[in-house]
Specification:
The protein has 468 residues and is an alpha+beta fold. The protein contains 23 helices and 6 strands. The mean pLDDT is 95.
Length: 468
């Protein structure tokens, strides 16, 4: 029998009444993987220009010691800690992403969970539950809004992410169903972020702002602040306004909640490279080609990238001038892969992007868009591509990638995930401390208080190695 309750209330009821025992082991394991990956990305971003500016700004304000600002040695109000940590986590574009989320889930949900969880003294199991519920809400909202939401210029990490963070925060604060409906309503009016800012510091700010606004919305709702209780389904509500004519029926968005959980049905993609996910398949392909065939940059006349026709709509910088723009440039990623035969944190510096030898290669990189490579955002994110290297000696070599590394169909190994984490963490922590953090996250479900983890993350930066 179809429920007579509104979609907003159905979703709020799901957030309030789902318990840890309802979660399958697969959901918990996937969440733990993304939390390891997200904290690693945050530690890598802590000493970036983005990380330094946002934490300096937060540090100049009032420091009510509620929650840890990661790798900075101080605490502040939970909402501000979520802002700082979310921005750092997305600073290098090294965090996970998800097709249905229309962006990056962990960088908005996890900072809200860690900050508010620390201030509320929740357990590791409660943190995992809140994270998984936030993921569920974000994935469903992204599905409901559809690809058109992204295509017109909205950044799903910011728009979808704000409601996801609010859902996680509402659960941590133990709001009741009416209060949770209010939290979602408040969050809906705080959501926003434009894709034109890709390749600037404002893109990672989208993530931090969504995390902060989720905490803010739930905290206001706890105090009795009001919003429309039908925010998902109303004519001027979240789904219709952000989704436009292509939006799904809000009732469909809230159908079959928890059966299965979204993190199991539509799991996140873990990145192997610190650049936009739409570059990943081509990077996989070109690195294979240059290593397998002992090809050097000077051997290549042209790099033909056969991709989704949507990919250039994401990778908007054909002549990047900064490291941040380089993350959204197929031309740069292909050129630096040819030159360095690797694509890691060391490749994304302003100096490397401006290297004349690298820039000379931009003109050799060409797009081709065969119909079989698709035309939507999901096609770009999944990474089905073919790269053809046209050599100066007249030979061609090619590599087809069906799903880029890190995709659920082509996942990283446990060892690769741990190596990525330790490489990131050791930028700010000693190897011993980095390993202790990793082991603590791996045992998250056994922690009585999440501060056992956040306490390890509060150490000031400077004890690790220098990047590059």
């Amino acid at each position: 029998m179809k429920s007579s309750a509104s979609p907003t209330r159905i979703l709020a009821d799901f957030i309030v009444n789902t318990v840890y025992g309802d979660l399958p082991a697969s959901a918990i394991n996937i969440a733990r993987t993304s939390i390891i990956d997200g904290i690693g990305a945050c530690l890598a971003g802590a000493d970036s220009p983005v990380g330094r500016i946002i934490t300096d700004y937060i540090g100049e304000g009032e420091r009510t010691p509620e929650a840890t600002v990661i790798a900075r040695g101080f605490k502040t109000r939970a909402a501000e800690a979520a802002l700082a940590n979310g921005t750092m986590m997305h600073a290098l574009d090294y965090d996970d992403c998800a097709e249905t989320f229309l962006g990056h889930p962990t960088t908005v949900i996890l900072p809200a969970v860690l900050a508010l969880g620390e201030s509320e003294g929740i357990s590791g199991k409660e943190a995992l539950l809140a994270y998984i519920l936030g993921y569920d809400v974000g994935s469903r909202m992204g599905t409901g809004l559809g690809p058109a939401h992204y295509d017109v210029g909205w950044h799903g990490t910011a728009t979808v992410g704000t409601l996801a963070a609010a859902a996680a925060a509402a659960r941590i604060l133990r709001l009741d169903v009416p209060q949770t409906s209010m939290a979602l309503g408040i969050a809906a009016s705080l959501a926003g972020g434009l894709r034109q800012n890709f390749g600037t510091m404002t893109k990672p700010l989208h993530a931090g702002n969504a995390a902060r606004n989720g905490v803010f919305a739930a905290s206001l709702a706890r105090q009795g602040f009001t919003a429309d209780r039908h925010i998902l389904e109303s004519p001027f509500g979240y789904v219709k306004v952000f989704g436009g004519t292509a939006a799904a029926d809000p009732g469909e968005v809230t159908g079959n909640l928890g059966a299965p959980f979204e993190i199991v049905a539509n799991p996140p993609i873990i990145k192997l490279y610190p650049s936009c996910r739409a570059t990943a398949g081509c990077i996989d392909a070109i690195l294979h080609l240059v290593k397998a065939n002992n090809i050097n940059a000077g051997d290549v006349a042209e790099v033909e990238c056969r991709t989704s026709s949507h990919t250039p709509r994401v990778l908007i910088h054909s002549m990047p001038r900064t490291a941040l723009e380089g993350k959204f440039s197929l031309q740069y990623c292909m050129a630096v892969a040819l030159a360095d035969k690797e694509v890691g944190l060391a490749q994304f510096t302003d100096q490397r992007v401006r290297d004349p030898e690298i820039r000379e290669m931009f003109g050799r990189v060409k797009y081709v868009h065969p119909p079989e490579m698709g035309s939507g955002p999901a096609d770009s994110m999944r990474g089905r591509v073919e790269v053809v290297l046209k050599l100066k000696n007249g030979a061609d070599v090619s590599r087809l990638v069906e799903a880029a590394r890190g995709d659920p169909e082509n996942p990283l190994t446990v060892e690769e995930l741990q190596t990525k984490f330790l490489d990131c963490a050791q930028l700010v922590f000693s190897p011993r401390d980095a390993r202790q953090i990793l082991d603590t996250i791996a045992a998250l479900d056994t922690l009585d208080d999440i501060s056992d983890l956040t306490g390890l993350l509060c150490q000031p930066s400077g004890s690790g190695r220098t990047p590059g």
